[in-house]
Specification:
The structure is a homodimer.
Chain A (H helix, E strand, L loop, with lengths): L7 E6 L3 H13 L5 E7 L11 H6 L13 H6 L3 E4 L1 E7 L4 E6 L5 E5 L2 E4 L3 E3 L12 E3 L3 H13 L4 E5 L3 H12 L3 E5 L11 H13 L3 E3 L4 E6 L5 E6 L3 E3 L2 E4 L3 E3 L2 H5 L24 E3 L6 E2 L6 E2 L4 H15 L13 E5 L2 E7 L2 H6 L4 E9 L10 E9 L5 E8 L7 H9 L4 H5 L15 H14 L2
Parallel strand pairs in A: 1-2, 1-7, 2-3, 7-18, 9-16, 10-11, 10-16, 11-12
Antiparallel strand pairs in A: 4-5, 5-6, 8-17, 13-14, 14-15, 19-20, 21-22, 22-25, 23-24, 24-25
Chain lengths: ~450, ~450
């Protein structure tokens, strides 16, 4: 191990959730006398909640800085040499060093490392079409994106917003714009919104969004953004029609930002994310770890790698990587694919496999869909929810759950997430001792109602 | 098997949740041509939600009948001969018959059975003290109790209520009386309310209840109920003082109603509840099953029998028993001790073992207590919650979780309930893939924050 002045040198690429969680945890375990930590971030902000941007835009969060968990100064006060506005341009794996450029001065230099953490995150998918860069077209991945959108909204008189994409970001931005009093149209490539659900559950989201006054356009690919005489956005065009727009929000998702890692010969998977071992060490590389939106993770249900860019995973990865580079031991066993979202009072949740995921990996299954309520039917505020459950044929093993409902629906997916992690069968689930009282649940929790019905269906085959 | 006219004869004692769930499930599996079902209920109501009574009294539920899941007529329409107002006075195990008395006419007769289901429920604990039967002193176990209390409230001018007992029923009745505009005093034998929690967590409930304007009197045993000149309740006395009361509500809990079963020589455990096998067959008796508040169940964490009178278990037991007597196969593996309750906007939840439970069964453990929030800290409506976690020494196995908080706190206990069922360690829990989005959770769910801290504590020993 190449030690510098007796101290080990840790270099972190990326100053957001994953990288800075790793740096902070490593610092907790090893003081500055033992470990020197240098982190490079090309942007202006560190450790912020990108997931919070829709709520900032929508007005639920008043100030940008509320989304910042820890500022560069706070990191530096903890003994992490965080260099903002500095982009790493090359990883020299053989030489164990990274080359970084100060974006303001253009100055470049090499920094050697004993251990390297890659937390380069994701880059937004931008449609390759005319007008995509017109004023008034905005992504919402970064705080700068959010500020630019807010600036546009402040100076635009029209109140028509078109959201491109109907995944989590799309529906959250639809809510944000509804909250700001806009007329909202969501243009969606898929047959139903929320393609992370099966289409039959997506249909419920579709109906509920229309109930909220959102215009849903499904099976529609945006072909261009039309601009007005002054160059600003005027409408969005698909093959079938035009949708007037004073602002266009792109919520089409992200891809792993791994160009730097790939140029250095590090292994990436089918989704373009870095491949790591269970300790989150880049495969085949003793001294390089990766964390957050730039990695692929094992889906414990499908047995295959998956790309799940989510802040909660980035933080967990960072914790695991920081523990390991700090001399401790931790692993990230994988995910089961849990996600929860809301659009106004509609809650949408999923975990495990959709039908098409299960088919793709060779699983045969039964599906059941049930209607229940969030509280005892007689208790005030009880609201309906739909639960869909997939169970493996013959074994009855739980494969996935999808929930669409109102208050109290979304976080019920956690029951299934833990059951999936524990490889439970739907029969085992029927005996789960879940919290019951009339204000919290019917006497049979909706997840158990689904499990009971799934047991009957599995047993009937 | 003694068959009558080719049909097997099932007799059910008790027409509430457990007994009628069993009867209904047996009927679903076997039609009237195969199975004759006779059920005896001494009261006036069938299949009702006793857990809903506090909300009916408090005014959240407008009508008594909303608490009735299925009326006697509905059961009869499904081919169950449900005899209301009929009390079983003897079980003749050797002769395979039960003796029942029609309470109106006094007529008695024997009914033979091939299979017997005992669902005799619980009886309320009534303090043995002067004045306990005075007008204005009410239990809240049955619909008749609830109606009697409502009648008292309708004709009483005073607005001072004393609730005796600070368990689930006590705190729920405190809420009910607050909702009706009463001044509420809760007199509690324990050192803190909610003795199903450790005292340090009970203290949080105590503080919150006082914040709601409820007067909490702890470490106090009610010695008598004082009556006024017209015989009605005037005050409640403890060794230390008197508490004026226009109405007194007894919420001291229940015991298994097993006198009939004990007289027939059936086995009961240390808590007085019937002992069954995993199929919920009474131990040592091929043809007798038991379900609901009259049985003891295995606590999967402590490995010992426990008495847990809860509607959700009664329904599950009934489902298991009905499946088995109907010719199918099902088991009730046990409970982990989950319970959730609320008093106004305070949510209280627990699962697994308290410190004293763990000590009693020989477990050594670490405890951690953390503060977190129900949503991302920056998201509107994020409310604080306290999570306490017990993990076994050395192994790190999860032993129990207690949660006190506001909206969104209570049902989080389900995460721990499933993890307990799956025998997870706190280290395994830190990797749980729980639903995350700012309106639903901080980036680390509060249960995972506790798990992380528990891991650190287990590892440091």
């Amino acid at each position: 191990m190449d030690m510098s002045g007796g101290r080990e040198r840790l270099v972190v690429i990326g100053g957001d959730a994953a990288g800075m969680s790793a740096a902070s945890q490593a610092r907790r375990l090893r003081g500055p006398d033992k470990l020197e930590i240098t982190a490079f971030e090309r942007g202006r902000f560190s450790s912020y909640s990108a997931c919070g941007i829709p709520y900032w835009v929508g007005g639920d969060v008043a100030e940008r800085d509320e989304l910042i968990a820890r500022s560069p100064e706070e990191h530096r006060a903890r003994g992490i040499d965080l260099r903002m506005g500095t982009e790493v341009t090359r990883i020299d794996v053989a030489g164990k060093r990274v080359r970084a450029r100060d974006l303001a001065s253009g100055a470049e230099s090499w920094t050697p490392y004993d251990k390297l953490v890659i937390g380069t995150g994701a880059r937004p998918i931008r449609p390759d079409m005319p007008g995509a860069d017109a004023p008034g077209v905005h992504g919402v991945q970064t705080l700068d994106d959010g500020q630019a959108l807010l600036d546009t909204l402040a100076r635009t008189r029209g109140r028509r917003a078109v959201v491109v994409g109907a995944g989590y970001i799309g529906v959250e931005m639809a809510e944000a714009m509804i909250n700001r009093g806009y007329e909202v149209t969501v243009v969606n490539r898929g047959s139903e919104p929320m393609s992370t659900l099966d289409p039959d559950m997506g249909r419920l989201v579709h109906a509920a969004m229309e109930g909220l006054g959102i215009t849903m356009v499904n099976d529609a690919e945006v072909t261009k953004v039309l601009t007005g005489p002054e160059g600003g956005v005027r409408a969005v065009a698909t093959e079938d029609g035009e949708y007037p727009a004073d602002v266009v929000i792109l919520g089409i998702g992200v891809r792993p930002e791994t160009s730097l890692a790939q140029a250095a010969g590090l292994p990436v998977g089918a989704h373009g994310g870095l491949l790591t071992d269970l300790a989150m060490r880049v495969r085949g590389h003793e001294d390089i770890w990766a964390a957050g939106d730039c990695v692929e993770v094992l889906n414990l249900v499908s047995g295959q790698e998956q790309y799940v860019p989510l802040g909660t995973h980035a933080n967990k990865h960072g914790q695991v990587v920081g523990t390991n580079v700090g001399g401790g031991y931790a692993t990230f066993p994988g995910v089961v694919g849990t996600a929860v979202s809301k659009v106004c009072d509609l809650e949408i949740a999923r975990t495990g496999l959709r039908e098409k995921d299960a088919l793709r990996v060779g699983l045969r299954f039964e599906t059941v869909t049930i209607e229940s309520t969030s509280r005892a039917g007689y208790y005030p505020g009880a609201s309906g929810m739909t639960v869909k459950m997939l169970a493996e044929r013959r074994t009855g093993r739980l494969l996935g759950v999808q929930i669409v409902g109102r208050e109290g629906a979304g976080k019920r997916v956690d029951i299934a997430a833990v059951a999936l992690t524990a490889n439970m069968t739907v029969e085992q689930m029927t005996a789960l001792d879940l919290g019951y009282a009339p204000p919290f649940s019917p006497v049979w929790d909706p997840v158990l109602v689904a499990a009971r019905k799934a047991v009957a269906k599995v047993n009937s085959r």
